[in-house]
Amino acid sequence: MTDRISAQRAADSLEEPVSEAANLAHKLGLDPYRVNYWIVDYDEMNELIAYDGFQTRYPHWRWGMKYDRQQKQNQFLGGKAFEIVNNDDPAHAFLQESNSLADQKAVITHVEAHADFFAHNQWFGLFTGGGTPDAAAMLARHADAIAAFMRDPDIEREAVESWIDTIQCLETNIDRHRAFESASAEEAPGIEDDDIADRLDELDLGADVVSEVFDDDWLEAQREEEPSGAIPPEPEPDLLAFLFRHGMAYDEEREKAVEMEEWQRTVLELLRREAYYFAAQRMTKVMNEGWAAYWESMMMGEENFAGTDEFLSYADHQARVLASPGLNPYKLGKELWEYIENSVNRREVCERLLRVEGITWRNFHDVVDFETVAAALAPDPVIDRIAGDGLAAFDPDDPRVDGEALATAKNGEIDVDRYPWKLLTYEGMAERHYSLAKPQNSGFLQRTSREELERISRYLFDDSRYSDVDEALADVEYTAGWNRLFEIRESHNDVTFLDEFLSQEFVDDNDYFTYEYTQATGDYRATSTDYEDVKKKLLLQFTNFGKPTITVQDGNYNNRNELLLAHHYNGVMLDVEQARQTLERVFDLWGRPVNLKTIVKELDEHDLEVAKRREREPDPDERGKLIRYDGESFTVEDLSWSEVEGIAATDVDYDTKPDEWLA
């Protein structure tokens, strides 16, 4: 990005760290996209942050606002930009030339882990359909197209910016669980439901086969139901796609809906495409940042990628990142990845020990000498403390040893004291960094609960395989924890990650709790340390990017070409004022009146006063509401419960207040 001499000098000094960080990442089992590193100055870094990590974006005032905010944050709040990397193949990462060498190395190792996550997580693959992204080129094309519209003498620049403003307000209203498809593509014809039963009859399948595969009630429904003709036939989560296909622009001068101009449709589709591209980053923020922090810490700290004179600077860097206030995805993600690794390794060890003669889940804590177990699980000193003068101790046929690298090292072509990890394979690295052998995890095995031991024993069929503890521990697979981490990295997003792996043990170890606002006292109070409550509150932050879930219900509401949207109520009310502002934006893309049905909580003033006197929480009434905007004014009307029952929360309740709270 720059031809400054100082930038070139910084780039030259970072060539070796960049190369060796990639090598170390592969040794640890990571398989990242190739990364291109760019040296930038302070202003350029702020510009990249404003542009969401890319060098070129479409013209809009939004970027200037983000740039100004970033500069002020750095200036007045002591913020510091460490890294920015984008999901592309090759990935592009940016290093601020004024940062110290320790910071640069931390960024490089962090970036390599991000690039691995980008390359292998299926939610990032959704956008490309399993191919590789070409995001920088895509966004540059979008920028050129929108800039051309702004230069067009027949199109007002202010109109383009206003149109972008409208679309950006709705950019999270997409179907994040589906692969991106152009909204202009013809929908593939499906098999009509009422044809399915007839086709099954034509196949002349036996009654036993049909009953085994298909539900009788479902088959009967196919014969009875007639196509409704509704648009959409099912609730549609991709509001932007629906508006592209069926929306109109509102012409203020003519005071009526008109067909969108071609530039409007183009901009809508371009920004929808970008929303799908960035969706995976929003859906995996905790996983992705935690993954990068986990491997960065291992490379910089445990593998001494940070030199002796850089370690304190790096430790300060890591502490500042992990101690950032609020819901910190780096801290939460790193802690949960580490907990999963420990849990998998613990189960692996417990399975071995429970196969030893005389050890059962009932007497496990009484007969197992945990200090002896810890000593047996410690890495072999040969691979734990590698030095250039100890190469004779390595067996080139040992699966933990990279025989080719060993031969190269013996020829003096590898600086073993500086890069000892080069002599090891993935298996050797897994043993070298085995989590249960680390001092901070010394008590993790011993505190295995009896309930967990009983669950493990229930599925052990070869329970007398080992004659003693030493024989059992010699069979432990040191790669078990890492192998599981790589599996999880491929398939999960933040919601499934937290839902599956957050446990009571994790909550207790890391001091998580929930808090609620109390109407009785008018302040916030801690309410629960139960893991289910903590999980509910965290899932609320990440489901649908933490935004309300809105679907299109009807494009011809009340047979008047009005749009009906539904808020899928989860116990948390909409911010009605923000909902009104958003409906104004939807109106711009629909051109006709828009409606939103939702559920609100209402408190009676008398009940609230009584609750305050008794120091109890009042029970609000839940009522259905329909908010309508016709381009000029809003109206709100009550809906019967039967009209909103389908959008009401059923099995999810985000209220974590205990029943007897404040009593």
Give an overview in words.
The chain is α+β, with helices and mostly antiparallel strands and 663 residues long. It has 29 helices and twelve strands. Helix 6 packs antiparallel against helix 12 (262-283) and helix 8 crosses helix 10 (216-224). Mean pLDDT is 89; it is low at 186-194.
The share of residues in helices is: 40-55%
Molecular shape: globular
| Alpha-beta content class | alpha+beta
Poorly predicted segments: 186-194
Number of strands: 12
Average residue pLDDT: 89
Strand content: 5-15%
Q: Specify Rg, calculated over alpha carbons.
A: 29 Å
Biggest sheet overview: 5 strands, mixed
Distance between the termini: 63 Å
- Tally of helical segments: 29
**Biggest β-sheet: strands ordered side by side in the sheet:** 8-9-10-11-12
Write the layout of secondary structure elements.
Layout: H1 5-27, E1 35-40, H2 42-50, H3 61-76, E2 84-86, E3 91-96, H4 101-120, H5 122-128, H6 135-151, H7 157-168, H8 193-203, H9 207-213, H10 216-224, H11 239-246, E4 249-251, E5 256-258, H12 262-283, H13 285-302, H14 311-322, H15 329-353, H16 364-367, H17 370-377, H18 381-384, H19 403-410, H20 426-432, H21 450-458, H22 469-473, H23 480-491, H24 494-501, H25 504-510, E6 514-518, E7 523-528, H26 531-542, E8 550-557, E9 562-567, H27 576-590, E10 594-602, H28 605-614, E11 621-629, E12 634-639, H29 641-644
Parallel strand pairs: 1-3, 9-10
Antiparallel strand pairs: 2-3, 4-5, 6-7, 8-9, 10-11, 11-12
Helix pairs in contact: 1-4, 2-3, 4-13, 5-12, 6-12, 7-12, 8-10, 13-14, 13-15, 15-23, 24-26
